[in-house]
Structure formats: structure tokens, C-alpha cells
Specification:
The complex is a heterodimer. Chain A has eight helices and ten strands. By secondary structure, chain A is of the alpha/beta class. A six-stranded mixed sheet of chain A has the order 6-7-8-3-9-10, with helices on both faces. A four-stranded antiparallel sheet of chain A has the order 2-1-4-5, covered by helices on one side. By secondary structure, chain B is α+β, with helices and mostly antiparallel strands. Chain B folds into two domains: 184 residues, no CATH class; 136 residues, no CATH class. Helices cover 56% and strands 16% of the residues of chain B. In chain B, helix 2 packs parallel to helix 11 and helix 11 packs antiparallel against helix 12. The two termini of chain B are 28 Å apart. The chains are: A alpha/beta, B alpha+beta. Chains A and B meet through helix 2 and helix 3 of A and helix 1, helix 10, helix 11 and helix 13 of B.
Chain lengths: 246, 409
């Protein structure tokens, strides 16, 4: 499935521009990028640098204006909305800054939501959702509604939801933006643990100390890759104590 | 994601906003209830009219002196006696298709038992009359030919009169009653017949032989018959032919030339019944149309709330799309929601409509007639209203850009 290059995510000369009145606003100006399976990548950059747009295209929520995006060996840059929905459902997990859990809905049902669209039968949905919640240390919170959970717990429910489809890649957009520093640590520890289990993580953040948990930091400036640093190990590593921290 | 799950998601969303869902459905509830109630009441009214006319007697013609079709300064019926006793005889013997014919003379007078009195209509007629009106006696016997010829002082009472003079449910057969101070013997009591279409109580009357009527109660006019003639045609299809034949016969007997107006009039009770039924039907159609408009207004209410709901749940839609919902999933969810809203409104409306119809019918004393096919049609129609008016908001939701939707505050 993976091409000879071994890249799970590959951007080839990706451009993205938005119409702005009679002008077009260029946001991405020729991004070349390859992420291998199992990497933990942080994308940084000032606001307006194009990191959100890059993330949207990577998450198959948007399509490049020009260039190719090859995801797991498949060119997804020209797929229709329905096909992109399938790709997102099968290959990707999303974690958002504002959690985006459905209100008045139990953790279990929130986590099971992607499986509903994957056509998984109800009994299996429950089992897999419960397993995903256990993996993020929330086995005791299956029937809690989002308003009964702390911010950190809500984000872990969201991570369980991202995991439940067993995706190759999890994309996290400012996952610690709404969390205090202690719960931020818990979430980053969880991400590192997931990374060790073979999941590829791409994280957008503007906080340098959060980026230090990643093994690779890509910095964007004006729609181009300004720097791409790899480290043999993340500057900060945390013990895998996510389940203990709940 | 199958249909059942789509339904569960949609119903859950409606339940989460119970009050709003109910208020939204209210338009459809009222619309459907109005349709059901109006049609049920209309059907009930029609059945009531039919029942009244059946009570009046079937295949009946009534011949009256004078003309109701006013030519010049002619008065109404009875103002100028023109029917004669020999006209009655001729109708009975010369017109084919006449099953029977009976004279009916009428006066208002007071009746007295030993301890009660009651003012009512006293009719002079023959025994044919009861047969012609489908009006059997509950007890006693009808007039004999010697009663009819010999001015016998016998009377048959209507149920209301018997109740008033002798107490409810009594059987005064054999008792004596004074009519205009003349003692009569009660020989029978009629079975109750109820009200006429105009609300007149058929049972409030007393019947004496026509000879007795003329001899003891109201002096006759010699050859002239100072009342009306009831004719019963042998079958319903004979009614128009009998009417034409009686008209021709009377014109001939009264020596009217071709230019002259009739000096009598014939009422066809079948025609009156049909006209009444048509009137009721027209009214029902009209009210149904108004009810259908209110159903459409209910549909617009659903569209309105669905649009609000789509806007409110923009983030939810964005999330669902991000997690893999295809446009048709989102479309389906909102369509099912609108449809469920309209359908449950329709079902509640049917129940409410039946309730309203039953209450109104009870207070009017009509039979309730609920048409199950119509109830089903109303629910199906409200489902269509839901789909029709839910389509635009659902399309709008399914076309939301997930990136914008996820950022929507």
C-alpha cells in the first residue's frame, strides 16, 4: 500500500489559494513534504503562515488548488466529497482544539460516531468504543456526558473517537489550546504513547514547548516550508501514565 | 449507516429539543386535525341528512294546492284551494307507478287527558299514510275502513303526545282523550320517528280519520281537499315519471291551458334530499381546502425550524462530515428529522381530529364517521409535507463546507 518511498503522507508541489474578490489569495505556495509511518510531527508557524490550510488538505477536508497529495499510496487530491469522506473515515482520526463532542451524548456514543458512518453493527460499535475509551484511561466514564467531564477528559474522549476507526494517522489541531498546562501534559503523553504503538501523529501548534514533544518540527512561513528539523528523540518525553492520571 | 440508524439519530435530535419539536409540529397537528374533523363532521352531517330523509319516507311526492312558483300575485300553497277529493281518487287509480296516496289535513288544537293537556298538530288522514311514511304503530291498531267512512272518534297518538298526556313511556291505548273538547278513543301509539331536517318533532302529532277530521274538528270545503296529498312511487326510479304523470293529470283535470301556470305544486322529497346532501358535500370540500392550506402553513413552520436547526447545529454537521459522513448521510438525517416531525404531527393531528369530531358530533347528535383511509392519507400527506419542506434545509446542511462548519461559532 505504501509507495516505494515509504512515505505515508506525501505532498508534491501543493498550492492552495482562495478567491478574494477579484484577486486570489495564495496560502500554500508549493509545499513538498513527506511523513513516514510512525512519525510524530509538529507543524508550527505564525498565524497566516498556512498551517491550518495544510492541515485541512492533509485531513482531506479540502483539496489542493494545484499539486498532488498522496495518502497511503493513493492520490486523493482530486477525489469528490463522498470519496474524501470515506478516506477520512477509514484512514484518519481528528482531534480538535475545542474537542467538538456532541452535547447531551454519552462518551461511548460520541466515540462510536465514526463507526456509525463506517457501517459497523451496533454491538461491535459499543465494544470498540469501550475499548478505545479504556485505551485513553476513561473506562469509568462511558456513560458520562461531555458537560460532566473536565476539559482534559473531554479531549481524551475526542482522542478515543479519533482512535476508534484504527486509523494510520491522527491529525490534531491545537489539541492543548483549551487545556491548562497539567492536562496538556497528560494529552501529550497520551500522544507519545500512541506514537510508540505505530500511529502517525501530525500536530498543529503555535506553542514551542508543545512542539518539543514531537520528534520532527516543520515550520511554515508564508505558505512555504521554512524549516524541517528532525530529532532522534523528542526533547521532552513523558512516562506512559495516561491511564494512571485519570 | 442504515435507515434505522438515521431514524434513531433524527428522533434523538427531536427528543433533545422536545418543546421546540412539539411547537413546530403544532402547525401540522392543527392542519391534520382540521382536515380529519371537518371531513368527519361533513360525513356525519351527510349521514344525518340521509337518515332524516329516510325517516320522512322514501320515494315521496307531496302535492299541494296553489303554486309555489310565483307567477304574478299568486299566493303560496294552500292560499287558493284547488285540489279536490276526486283528484286524489284519480291519482290513486289512474297514475301508473303510484304505490299509494293519502290526504293529509292539518290543524293545531289542544288535547286533554284526565289530568294533562297538550296543544299539538292534529292530522286527518287515512291508514295508507303510516305505510307511506314507513311509520309503524308501536301499539294498538290503525284506522279501519269503517273508521274512515263513519267519522269514528278514534285517534292515534305520536310518541311525544302520549308522553305529554299520559306520562313518558305509557301506553294509553283504550284511554279517552278530548280533542277540541270532543272525546276520542286512543286506538294506537306510533313508534318514535325523531326530528325532521328542519328540526320539527315528527312525534308531536295526533292522527284521526280524515272523515272524522272534517266532521268533528274542521269543517271541510265540500269538493275541495284543504290539505296536501302524499304520494309514494313504487320505486325510486319511478319518482320523476310519477311526478310528470301526476302533474299532467292535474293540469288536465283542472282544465289549465298550455299558457297557464300550475294551480298546484308537487314537491319531490328525493330531490330535496339530494340537494341537501350536495350542499353538505360542497361545504365539506370548501372546509377541507381551508384545512389543507393550514397544513401547508404547518409545513412552512417545519421548514423554518429546520433552517434554524441546521444553522444551530452547523458545528455538529461539520464534525459529522469530518468523521466520515457523506453528504447523503447529512441530507438523510435532516430529511428524516423533518419527516418524523411532520409524521408525528400528523399522527397526533389524526387523534386530535377524531377527538374534536367525536365531541362536535356528540353535541350535534350526529353519527361520527371517521374514514380510516382519510386518516392514513393525512399522515402520508404530512410525511410528504415534511419531505417537501425539509428538503431545502437538508440540502443546505449537506452542502456545508466542513472547514467553515467546524469553525462556526
Amino acid at each position: 500500500m505504501i509507495e516505494a518511498s515509504g512515505a505515508l503522507i506525501r505532498f508534491e508541489r501543493v498550492f492552495k489559494s482562495y478567491p478574494l474578490g477579484e484577486l486570489t489569495l495564495p496560502v500554500l505556495q508549493g509545499i513538498d513534504l513527506a511523513v513516514t509511518g510512525g512519525e510524530f510531527v509538529a507543524i508550527m508557524g505564525a498565524s497566516g503562515s498556512g498551517k491550518s490550510t495544510l492541515m485541512n488538505i492533509m485531513g482531506c477536508l479540502d483539496r489542493p488548488s494545484a499539486g498532488r497529495y498522496v495518502l497511503a499510496g493513493r492520490d486523493v487530491s482530486r477525489l469528490g466529497r463522498g470519496e474524501l469522506a470515506e478516506v477520512r473515515n477509514e484512514r484518519l482520526g481528528f482531534v480538535f482544539q475545542s474537542f467538538n463532542l456532541l452535547p447531551r451524548t454519552s462518551s461511548l456514543e460520541n466515540v462510536a460516531l465514526p463507526l456509525v458512518y463506517a457501517g459497523v453493527p451496533a454491538r461491535e460499535r459499543r465494544a470498540r468504543a469501550a475499548a478505545a475509551l479504556e485505551r485513553v484511561g476513561l473506562a469509568q466514564r462511558l456513560d458520562h456526558h461531555p458537560n460532566q467531564l473536565s476539559g482534559g477528559q473531554q479531549q481524551r474522549v475526542a482522542i478515543a473517537r479519533a482512535l476508534v476507526n484504527r486509523p494510520r494517522i491522527i491529525l490534531a489541531d491545537e489539541p492543548t489550546g483549551n487545556l491548562d498546562s497539567r492536562t496538556s501534559l497528560e494529552v501529550m503523553a497520551l500522544f507519545q504513547e500512541l506514537c510508540r504503538s505505530g500511529i502517525t501523529l501530525v500536530l498543529v501548534t503555535h506553542e514551542p514547548d508543545i512542539a518539543e514533544y514531537a520528534a520532527r518540527v516543520i515550520t511554515l512561513r508564508d505558505g512555504r516550508v521554512a524549516s524541517d528539523e528532525r530529532r532522534s528523540a523528542p526533547l521532552r518525553a513523558l512516562a506512559t501514565e495516561a491511564s494512571a492520571a485519570s | 449507516m442504515n435507515v434505522l440508524q438515521t431514524f434513531r439519530v433524527a428522533l434523538w435530535a427531536l427528543w433533545a429539543n422536545r418543546l421546540r419539536s412539539f411547537l413546530t409540529a403544532l402547525g401540522v397537528i392543527i392542519g391534520v386535525a382540521a382536515v380529519i374533523a371537518v371531513v368527519a363532521i361533513g360525513e356525519g352531517a351527510k349521514a344525518n341528512v340521509e337518515e332524516s330523509f329516510a325517516a320522512m319516507g322514501t320515494n315521496l311526492l307531496v302535492v299541494m294546492s296553489g303554486a309555489t312558483t310565483a307567477g304574478g300575485v299568486r299566493g303560496g300553497f294552500g292560499s287558493q284551494p284547488s285540489l279536490t277529493w276526486s283528484d286524489l281518487g284519480a291519482i290513486q287509480s289512474d297514475v301508473p307507478g303510484v304505490a299509494s296516496a293519502a290526504p293529509v289535513l292539518r290543524t293545531a288544537t289542544s288535547l286533554a287527558s284526565d289530568d294533562q293537556n297538550w296543544t299539538t298538530q292534529v292530522y286527518g288522514t287515512t291508514s295508507d299514510y303510516f305505510e307511506l311514511r314507513n311509520w309503524p304503530l308501536a301499539s294498538g291498531v290503525s284506522f279501519t275502513s269503517s273508521d274512515l267512512d263513519g267519522q269514528t272518534k278514534v285517534v292515534i297518538l305520536g310518541r311525544t303526545v302520549a308522553d305529554q298526556l299520559y306520562g313518558p313511556g305509557s301506553n294509553p291505548t283504550g284511554q279517552s282523550v278530548r280533542i277540541a273538547n270532543v272525546p276520542f278513543e286512543v286506538i294506537g301509539v306510533l313508534s318514535p320517528k325523531g326530528q325532521s331536517t328542519s328540526g320539527q318533532d315528527y312525534d308531536d302529532g295526533a292522527f284521526v280519520p280524515v272523515s272524522t277530521f272534517q266532521g268533528k274538528l274542521q269543517r271541510g270545503l265540500g269538493n275541495f281537499l284543504s290539505g296536501v296529498i302524499f304520494i309514494r312511487a313504487s320505486t325510486a326510479s319511478e319518482v320523476p315519471r310519477v311526478q310528470a304523470a301526476v302533474s299532467a293529470l292535474l293540469r288536465d283535470r283542472h282544465h289549465l291551458d298550455a299558457a297557464a301556470d300550475d294551480d298546484f305544486s308537487i314537491r319531490n322529497l328525493v330531490e330535496i334530499a339530494n340537494a341537501q346532501a350536495r350542499g353538505t358535500e360542497t361545504l365539506t370540500t370548501l372546509l377541507s381546502a381551508i384545512a389543507a392550506v393550514s397544513l401547508a402553513v404547518g409545513g412552512i413552520g417545519i421548514m423554518n425550524i429546520m433552517l434554524v436547526s441546521v444553522t444551530e447545529r452547523t458545528r455538529e454537521v461539520g464534525l459529522r462530515v469530518a468523521l466520515g459522513a457523506k453528504p447523503q448521510h447529512i441530507l438523510g438525517q435532516f430529511l428524516v428529522e423533518a419527516c418524523a416531525l411532520a409524521c408525528s404531527g400528523g399522527a397526533l393531528g389524526v387523534l386530535l381530529g377524531i377527538g374534536v369530531a367525536a365531541r362536535l358530533a356528540a353535541s350535534f347528535g350526529w353519527p361520527v364517521s371517521i374514514n380510516p383511509a382519510l386518516a392514513l392519507l393525512a399522515v402520508v400527506f404530512s410525511a410528504l409535507v415534511g419531505i417537501g419542506f425539509g428538503l431545502y434545509p437538508a440540502l443546505k446542511a449537506s452542502r456545508l463546507d466542513p472547514i467553515q462548519a467546524l469553525r462556526y461559532e
